[in-house]
Sequence to fold (403 residues):
Amino acid sequence: MLNFGRNGRAAFDVDAGRLLSAPEAPLALEDPLTAARSALAGPVDFPPLTRAVVAGDRVALALTPETPSAAELIAAVWEQLAEREIRPEDVTIVEATSPHERQLQDPRVALPLEVRDTVNWVIHDPEEKTACTYLATTASGERIYLSRLLIEADVVVSIGYTTFDPILGYSGTSSVFYPWMSSSEASLRFRGQGHLELEPGDERPLRQLTDEIAWLLGTQFTVQSVPSAGFGTSHVVAGLCDSVLRRGMQLLQADWELELEERPELLVLAVDGGPQGTTWADVGAALSTARKIVARGGRVLLLTELAELPGPGMQLLQGAENPDDAIRPLGKTMPADVVPATQIAAAVDWARVFLLSQLPGDLVEDLFMVPVDTPAEAARLLQGEESCLLLPSAEKWFVRVTG
Fold:
């Protein structure tokens, strides 16, 4: 049985001899608030947060959009701040606009009722000219502008999640600040098509830039979750930014890395998506994995609840004669969805992709994929003798083929 989206389920009867591996995604913590409290009580390589703040401090909590268990992480941090008599009106949650254009959920819902509406929640608008101010100049000479609320705060704590990222290698900790807490011009410069040939731990200049910006900002403390299957959290880590990132990387390598000795001929990918739905970014991440591991000309079955219409990058793919024809225009125009559009174009050019979604069949066909209407129809695609792999929570894995 593979779960996908909020309510999707598909059952498959596959002979064990055909399966190259049987990976399982880590389960969600039953009580992420208790896990966050425990992480804050014993932070990694840093004193407790209660020793880093004093009454009267203005505290900014820089929140990565769509962080699993964000409300519980915020609530646990607030308990530490309240212990030091930080006033709720002096706390501002600064959240970046979701790069996936999902509607953001109020991260204050787990706070005590008496402070819930007093703690400030601001969604950073990169288009608002007065939202940013000058921070510093990097070692390479780049002038950095960040959210005024972060720069003017006495204490800045980053809150987010550590995961694999096609551009940064690993996202998390300092990646919340740049470019998402900067200007629209910075976001545009940051867009790219990823690096399919690189391992997550390989050197990435943009990752180094985000770490330098965090150092220039003077922030050292972070609280990070590691995603689980579904929409939950498998681990919570708090402490010094560099140390927490290293610990998050170790947890990802243990829970979300998979090695195969050979390429499967048939790959089934179940896509979780987010609490607000599945996006093309989720599909792109899953298909990026497929492109790396499925046999050339093999079959890929995507199980999703995708209902999102194509963005400008996907529309370029939709209008192309062949998938490969869209790659150059994507690199030239750099639309907001350039990463998933490029990932999907590469995958459908490499393998035959079947998509179970909530989209019209003709739209799916225009994107060089074969529409699948029901889980039962999806199950029939597995009738055969090909080697196969069933991958739950497919957008979250890093998979390599060693053979």
